[in-house]
Amino acid sequence: MSQFDQSSEACAVWQKLSRQANRDYALQDMQKAQALYEDAMAKAVGLLNHFQETGLPLSAPSVFVVSCHNLTDLLFTQEEPEKAVLFLRSACTELVRLASQPGLPLQARLACVEQLRPAVVALMERESGTLPEQPETRMLVDRARTVALSVYQIAGYAVQTRLEDAPVTGRPS
Asked: Cα–Cα distance between 142 and 116 in angstroms, integer?
């Protein structure tokens, strides 16, 4: 089985687990929902590890963030805000770490950066509503901003380079 097939299968399993967990969450079966969300998180971590090695699938950062949000929502429902915020912080930390890796393909780094803003916003909203401001959160937000700007700058140079290397077409002036 190819790596692509394995990651596609893992995405499908993650999606199935998440849907089942969402159903149980809606039915107020929190114990079953938590077990399924944790299984889905394990799949998401596996996808993220594969993503770190190959840059694929590009959906891996999103899958990981959704899993973190699902567990966060569940833990807030169970009135465990400290644990809940740890999942949001983990999402931001992983995205920053992966987006910072120069060996990762640019498209993969951009996929991480695209998930950073909603992850950071969720962290700040959830933390500010329930917990005192954490200095590590402020540092993480600053680091996320720096990494995002860096990746976007690199992407801009990549586009500019591709345009400069493109053959000239049309009439000369």
From this structure: 12
